[in-house]
Design brief:
85 residues; mainly alpha; 78% helix
């Protein structure tokens, strides 16, 4: 079974974009709690740090993560399709 690389790229970019927006809203709404969660995820103490999230950072991050994830998913589909032939 072949994977449509373009559709996988677009769907992955959309899902990553939605996740980025949700995460950004959580950072805006509960910055200390999200800093603690982030610290737990990377096994670090970020309690002395603060978030620096503004509207341009939200947009740049949204584009960077969405495009990057879409490209990686598309490349993965291309490699997979070549392996199953």
């Amino acid at each position: 079974m072949k994977i449509n690389a373009f559709k996988l790229s677009i769907s992955t970019a959309a899902v990553f974009g939605a996740a980025w927006v949700i995460c950004s809203l959580l950072v805006i709404g509960a910055p200390q709690a999200m800093m603690q969660v982030t610290g737990h995820m990377v096994h670090a103490d970020f309690s002395h740090m603060n978030w620096q999230l503004n509207s341009s950072g939200l947009v740049v991050g949204l584009l960077a993560w969405s495009i990057g994830a879409g490209l990686i998913a598309g490349a993965t589909a291309v490699v997979y399709n070549r392996l199953v032939d």
